[in-house]
Amino acid sequence: MTPEQFEARRDGIGGSEIAAILGLDPFSGPLDVWLAKVEGYQKPTTEDMERGQFLEAGIADWYAQREQLGAGNLQPGLRLDHGSLPHVFATPDRISFTALSTAPTQRPRTRLVSIKAPRRAGDSWGETGGSHVPVGYVLQLQWEAAVVRSLPSMPYDWESTMHLVALIDGDLRVYPVETDLELQAQLLDYAAKW
């Protein structure tokens, strides 16, 4: 992240931090998040972080081609602030815009897409048809969906299925993640107390 992006994230809790706050992130914990918000501490950039930064755009392009989204139908997400909870925001990796109807009353359908480039599959990643993926990434998508649902007058219809897209051992895998409203409410409640 640029210094400006890092500074903008200090004022709230984003999707990439919710697993750490819950103690479910193997690389970061609640104290790390607190130090980043209050003291401005930044973890040193690792090779794994660099790999993700450099590969994200290529993985997104591959996913867009495979999903036949067409040019411009997969956009990087911008910062979205929760509609009513201060200090809660999301910065989705990508938002996909599905084919639009020609009916003037139908709104665009969109999907949240999270992109990952792990070093290796390990025990955390199952086959694409399965649901075995790292819990932190599922929590991140649920958090982002909770923020999106809170926004007043969004000009889109959001799909209930989100996609976790990962480059695993050289293969592009797409893991569907279903919206879980109960889990989203629990995440927001816990974060507010934290």
Question: What topology emerges from the helices and strands here?
Answer:
Layout: H1 3-9, H2 15-21, H3 30-39, H4 47-66, E1 74-76, E2 80-81, E3 89-90, E4 94-97, E5 109-116, H5 135-150, E6 157-158, E7 161-168, E8 171-178, H6 181-193
Parallel strand pairs: 5-6, 5-7
Antiparallel strand pairs: 1-4, 2-3, 4-5, 7-8
Explain what this protein looks like in three dimensions.
Strands 1, 4, 5, 6, 7 and 8 form a six-stranded mixed sheet that branches. Strands 2-3 form a two-stranded antiparallel sheet. The model has no long low-confidence stretch (mean pLDDT 86). It has one domain: Alpha-Beta Complex (Lambda Exonuclease, Chain A), CATH 3.90.320.10. Helix content is 38%, strand content 19%. The chain is built from six helices and eight strands. α2 crosses α5 and α5 packs across α6. It is an alpha/beta fold.
The gist of it:
The chain has 194 residues and is α/β, with parallel strands linked by helices. Helix content is 38%, strand content 19%.
CATH class assignment: Alpha Beta
Tell me the series of helices and strands, N- to C-terminal: HHHHEEEEEHEEEH
**Looking at CATH, which topology would you report?**
Lambda Exonuclease, Chain A
| Content of β-strand | 15-25%
How does the helix and strand content classify structurally?
alpha/beta
Low-confidence stretches: none
| CATH architect. name | Alpha-Beta Complex
Q: Count every helix, treating DSSP H or I runs of 4 or more residues as helices.
A: 6
Which descriptor suits the 3D outline? globular
How many domains, as an integer? 1
Mean pLDDT: 86
Strand count, sense and closure of the main sheet?
Answer: 6 strands, mixed
N-to-C span: 24 Å
